[in-house]
Amino acid sequence: MTIITACTGGGGGPEIRVGSKDFTEQYVLGNLYEILLDESGFDADYKPAGGSSENHQAIVNGDIDIYPEYTGTALLTHLGMEFDSSMSADTVYSTVKDAYANDFELAVLEPTDFNNTYVLVMTKPKAEELDIKNVSDLSTKGGDLTFGTTQEFTERDDGLPGLRETYGGFNFEEIVALDPGLLYSGIEEGEIDVTTGFGTDGQIAAYDLLVLEDDKKFWPPYPAAPIVRQAVVDEHPEVAELLNQLSATIDADTMQELNWEVSGNGREADEVAREFLEENGLIGS
What we know:
The strands form 3 sheets. The chain has a 5-stranded mixed sheet. A 3-stranded antiparallel sheet has the order 3-10-4, with helices on both faces. A two-stranded parallel ribbon has the order 1-2. It is globular, with a radius of gyration of 20 Å. It is α/β, with parallel strands linked by helices. Helix content is about 40%, strand content about 15%.
């Protein structure tokens, strides 16, 4: 594979406006996009644009040119389609790609090789004690456990209500609604037994937690793909080439490590992003 890198960096080329959502992983991805494009001769400018709806509306309106989106979110939220457990990640991606081109004149570039779906996690000793390996096990063995999650998760269709409908059970001894920032500390300190997270959270590896298998495939796949205005791709096809090369370098372990550098070790997202791009030969050092 030929790696496209910049001969000169920083700026005086075509303007590219990069957005993202407002949480750690998206900050990392947004900075990766900006730095890669900026170092490849574009005048890239990155600014988080809010949540899923705000980013989608911004790119449809032409206020931003690029942002990272998860294919599951695109399918369910932006397209209003339903997920069937028989749908593979490739099927979801191709469905989203075709619909975005037809409905929004947006290009969905190659997705990353990670799945940032919802996950249910426990400490390994607790899971071994109760012989819990997957979500089905948890649904029937949670009677003596404390489940800590966000208030939103207790109400969302793809949260606790949907899990109960798909798996049955989920009758915990206690359900505690916590701030998202307290979920992992709660399980690490033994205040809760089970919590919700996302598949690429750095805390999963850092705290050596067990991710329970979603054995009934309740959640759709959530790889991240760069969403780009088609007009930008038509005028500057190298944008797609660069971002596709970037996506090919990011698997689940890599994304967890990058996230942990920011959320766990307190480093700045732009510093972590630049270091990754240099180490992988995508930009010069």
